[in-house]
Amino acid sequence: MSRTNAHPTRPRRALAVASALLLGVTTALTASAPATAADERVDNPYVGADVYVNPIWSANAAAEPGGEAVADQPTGVWLDRISAIEGNDSPTTGDMGLRDHLDEAVAQAAGEPLVFQLVVYNLPGRDCAALASNGELGPEEIDRYESEYIDPIADILSDYEDTSLRIVTTIELDSLPNLITNVSPRNTATPECDVMLANGNYVNGVGYALSRLGAIDNVYNYVDAGHHGWIGWEDNFAASAALFHEAANANGATPDDVHGFISNTANYSALKEEHFAIGETINGTPVRQSSWVDWNNYVDELSFAQALRVELVSQGFDPGIGMLIDTSRNGWGGPDRPVSAGPTTDVDAYVDGGRFDRRIQYGNWCNQAGAGLGERPTTAPEPGIDAYVWMKPPGESDGSSTEIPNDEGKGFDRMCDPTYEGNPRNNHNMSGALPDAPVSGHWFSAQFQELLANAHPPVQ
Ligand code: BGC
Q1: What is the pLDDT of residues 252-273, one digit of tens each?
Q2: Mean pLDDT score of the chain
Q3: Atom 11 in ligand 1: which residue has the minimum CA distance?
Q4: Which atom of ligand 1 is nearest to the CA of 409?
Q5: Separation of CA 93 and ligand 1 centre (Å)
Q6: Domain covering 15-453 in this structure, CATH number
Q7: pLDDT at 18
Q8: What pLDDT shows up at residue 253?
Q9: What is the pLDDT of residue 31?
Q10: Contact (Cβ atoms closer than 8 angstroms) between residue 285 and residue 346
Q11: Is 336 helix (H, G, I), strand (E, B) or coil?
């Protein structure tokens, strides 16, 4: 498929080429520079490239009944702790370190362009509004984040600068949006997010990651942008974009270090709701006022991601930025998927009867019952969207349903407990989580089976 809004070449590159021409070094350039992707950042790294298949995830998927059908799909490689860089043999990341993955990626690439998807996820005071992935670094440990986590990653990636790999990094999911929605004086505030806002370590950590990784020619940084059920409201949307811009100017970063943004990472928000829309009115009540939509300006990820792109550009990001959407678990297929709109008797019946996303409330985020695999990874599926990706490896848990002691920095969040009755962040609804889940990142066979059964598009 093709995109209609072709992006201009990155300005930095255009400048470099222009000055090379002025200096009359064209011949030298063409003679010495091999025609690999590493020499020039392309507009959309996914175009004309394969995407890395993580052998560890692939083997887990293939070992499940029916899993072979998706086991060759590309998924993100998560560096969720410092020790994951070298490889720590944990049930989460397995025995491959970053270098092992990159060597395997070079082999898979066989000299052709190949996207390698890396999830950078280890901020100080990580996941300040939840406990399931609250991490190994304390709120003040920004120095360790920089010197023991980002610097070694940057050093290793630099060794692969002159390969045909295009390294897509997604930067610190759930961090910056937490500083908008989960801080005082909102009733959704947590003390931990108040601390991370006050000490500046999310903003400075993201800035550092962007600047160090963005200095590597074949790295494409995508900043995490939550999802529509988080920052799609008026008072969160523009404020989040402004904060992303602040982080992109912090600690050595510039907006040029940002190639784009990713939405819905490890979340369940539907890609396209087809049976109701913002702007419709049912029996005198706007869809926005249904209890499901609850005054949000978006009903799905595609419309949200496209609108956020425009907002980000208006706030100072390059007009060439592109969006990624994580579609690993937002399919919501299977026998319960509505085939038409709900009845028009009242707005709630209409929206609830027609919606694909069958969560109890869209603030629910942990191991959601009824979810299915979403769109398979796809390049440039829609205007402004660089790719649909499976950044969260489907089948890996979001968090344990009961407390399980571990040495991975994983707490117990009751949003992963199916008996939990909720908190202000999901408007006091049941959690909707599957029972018997292992700690986050560990293989959750029952969830994988359900994702397969409820896949949409269905798995053939
Ligand atoms: C976990 C990570 C894991 C990732 C991907 C996160 O929720 O905290 O340890 O690598 O999910 O499954």
Answers
A1: 999 999 999 999 999 999 999 9
A2: 92
A3: 441
A4: 8
A5: 9
A6: 3.20.20.40
A7: 33
A8: 98
A9: 32
A10: yes
A11: coil
Is 50 part of the annotated catalytic residue set? no
Residue with CA at minimum distance from ligand 1 atom 5:
441
Tens digits of per-residue pLDDT, 334-369?
Answer: 999 999 999 999 999 999 999 999 999 999 999 999
* pLDDT surpasses 90 at 25: no
Kindly report the number of other CB atoms within 10 A of residue 107's CB atom.
Answer: 9
The overall pTM is greater than 0.70: yes
Write the residue with the smallest CA distance to atom 8 of ligand 1: 133
Residues 6+ apart with CB under 8 A from 206: 123, 171, 172, 175, 176, 223, 247, 248, 250, 253
Name the phi and psi angles at 417, rounded to 5: -100, 120
Q: Which entry of 127, 174, 224, 300 is annotated as an active-site residue?
A: 127
- Cβ atoms of 126 and 135 within 8 Å: the answer is yes
Q: How many whole angstroms from 404 Cα to the centroid of ligand 1?
A: 15
Q: Which atom of ligand 1 is nearest to the CA of 398?
A: 7
Over residues 30-72, the pLDDT tens digits come to 333 344 444 579 999 999 999 999 999 999 999 999 999 999 9
- Cα(428) to centroid(ligand 1), Å: 25
- Look at residue 40 in the predicted model and tell me its pLDDT: 78
Alpha-carbon span 389 to 49, nearest angstrom = 13
If you write DSSP's letter for every residue of 265-330 in order, what string do you get? TT----S---S--TT-EETTEEGGGSTTTTT-S-SSHHHHHHHHHHHHHHTT--TT-EEEEE-SS-
Q: Is 141 in the pocket of ligand 1 (CB under 6 A)?
A: no
Q: Is the CB of 80 under 6 A from ligand 1?
A: yes
User: Taking residues 111-126, what's their average pLDDT?
Assistant: 98
Burial class (CB in 10 A: 0-12, 13-18, 19+), 82: middle
Q: Which residues contact 80 (CB under 8 A, 6 or more apart)?
A: 92, 93, 119, 121, 122, 133, 135, 408, 441
Tokens of 184: 């005082």
Q: How far is the CA of 412 from the centre of ligand 1 (A)?
A: 14
Is the CB of residue 441 below 6 angstroms from any atom belonging to ligand 1?
yes
CB of residue 136 inside a 6 A radius of ligand 1: no
Mutate to test the pocket of ligand 1, among 119, 122, 126, 133 (most ligand atoms within 8 A of CB): 133
Q: Where are the domains of the chain?
A: 15-453
